[in-house]
Amino acid sequence: MNTGPDGSPGPLRDAEAVVLVGGQGMRLRPLTLSAPKPMLPTAGVPFLSHLLARIRESGIRHVVLGTSYKSEVFAEHFGDGSAFGLDLEYVVEDRPLDTAGAIRNVAHLLRAEDVLVFNGDILSGLDLRSLVETHRRAAAEVTLHLVKVDDPRQFGCVPTDAEGRVTAFLEKTEDPPVDQINAGCYVFRRPVIERIPAGRRVSVERETFPGLLAGGARLQGHVDSSYWLDMGTPAAYVRGSADLVRGSLPSAALPGAPGESLLLAEARVAPDAVVDGGSTIGAGAEVATGARISGSMLFDGARVGADSVVRDCVLGAGARIGAGVVLRGAVIGDGAVIGDECELLDGARVWPGVEIPAGGVRFSADRR
Ligand code: GTP
Questions:
Q1: What is the pTM of this model?
Q2: Are 173 and 219 found together in one domain?
Q3: 26 and 87: one domain?
């Protein structure tokens, strides 16, 4: 790696990247019924565009996508990567191989000594060059991006010693000894990838990393406190998109200037409607008079009727929301219809094409 004039790490021209994009995204259903999670619209472009833009900014050019669920849509959108300044290749798993299995499955396309591996559903402001610098300084087999979280009970945690060396991978517990968790981004020395068993399901967290530790390998932690979000749940997904729209996490892939809202081509918003909180109004989508949209995403062609209030929601492509509707923390599937005066609150999910009649019906549980 080169060094910049101020001593900062230079571009990563001699590293490669693997992005894992083969998961089914169950927690984001029904949105992931029609598109894999990394392809869901996020601040106006597929989520993966933001990650690829960051990889490109680091200086890396060669990126391999490990695909499984709905594999074809990635190549349809990103092609050979040249339009994005990248050299992109794809590997399709016949059946899902889990995270480490997916990394092993792309090994034949890798040439670099240091390989950055990304979960394809993480938004982060991590400086990739400093991650690689930590890896090289420690002469580690694998370096893991770690983040500190307020409530580590919902995650497995990853303690490190005074030199930053990983000492254990601990399962979820009610009383975790540290607040550091695996942030889903790693640097692997390439020979480590080649030693992962081929052709079967292997998990990095449950098998590969604990096995390396047990064998005495050096696993280094790189704790970083910049922006980090796992966008695997609907609430995190809408928040991540809003943060990108508002510029809380700058992204070169944002199709416009940061602000309170992002309106895509042919979006129509009535003059007295309010759209804020980092909302995105998709191509051809409509917001009628008196409506208020906050911190939400309207996919292409979605329509919101007069005086409706939509907060922290995702409205799928072509969804139709009537007049006087209140939606909060809801996910409305593609083409679903919500009648006038309905109220759908926290966690409500409406499956694609479902029609809920007018009449002030109130739902706060899943409805398929
Ligand atoms: P949930 O079903 O909602 O948990 O989401 P998910 O399927 O994406 O699983 P998870 O969030 O644990 O996956 C972490 C990352 O690994 C995501 O970027 C997934 O796309 C990816 N991933 C998970 N399993 C596989 C797999 O079997 N093959 C490949 N290629 N990628 C995977």
A1: 0.94
A2: yes
A3: yes
